[in-house]
Design a protein that fits this description.
Layout (H helix, E strand, L loop, with lengths): L3 H5 L32 H25 L20 E3 L3 E2 L5 E4 L6 E3 L2 E2 L18 H12 L4 E8 L5 E7 L2 E2 H7 L4 E2 L7
Parallel strand pairs: 4-7
Antiparallel strand pairs: 1-6, 2-3, 3-4, 5-9, 6-7, 7-8
């Protein structure tokens, strides 16, 4: 017989490893070859029932609500809105004629496909800014949303990281109303009013 080292060849370090005894060996099912779980069947049933119940509750809740309150309301504390989400906008605030912020929290969002006059000092050199009265544009947008139910739908994100939204105040498209009333111009998209 040749030495034990030659039996393992270049894997000679294996000769010093302990052999697997019965207590370390996992028993497998003869029919399926699967290793049995250490949990009993009743525990597995409870885990599965809990998982399925939780999944059904989450799916049903998201289906029933349809429109969310949004990331700025008390019901949701999410900072990330994916594209295509609709939400209610409580207490809208406006910095200028083409921006909306829902409540005092959160970030300003840009209204889709319009450009309104910039506030004094906001138009950087070399940029083509819309002419007009920025204060009148902002005040007109505030008048359009005051006392109305405002809902928005996320369409995109601009180069500054703001959400681009299409908002409606009692079924009236805010972007279309601002262009129609002469307080903004159509830019950065195509409006269908």
């Amino acid at each position: 017989m040749i030495g034990a080292a030659s039996r393992f060849g270049r894997w000679s370090f294996l000769q010093n490893m302990p052999r697997r005894s019965g207590r370390f060996r996992q028993r497998r099912s003869r029919s399926t070859g699967a290793v049995p779980s250490k949990r009993g069947p009743e525990t597995m049933r409870r885990l599965l029932a809990g998982f399925l119940t939780g999944s059904i509750v989450i799916l049903a809740g998201s289906y029933i609500t349809g429109i969310e309150e949004g990331p700025w309301g008390s019901a949701h504390a999410r900072s990330d809105l994916g594209s295509g989400k609709s939400f209610l906008c409580p207490s809208p605030e406006h910095h200028d004629g083409d921006a909306i912020r829902c409540g005092s929290k959160g970030r300003s969002m840009r209204l889709y496909a319009i450009d309104a006059p910039e506030m004094p000092g906001a138009c950087r050199s070399g940029r083509r800014c819309t002419q007009g009265n920025a204060f009148a544009s902002r005040d007109h947008l505030a008048a359009l949303t005051k006392g109305r139910s405002v809902s928005c739908h996320v369409l995109d994100q601009d180069r500054y990281g703001r959400k681009v939204v299409r908002c409606f105040a009692d079924q009236m498209d805010l972007s279309c109303a601002m262009v129609h009333d002469g307080y903004a111009v159509e830019r950065y998209g195509k409006l269908r009013c």
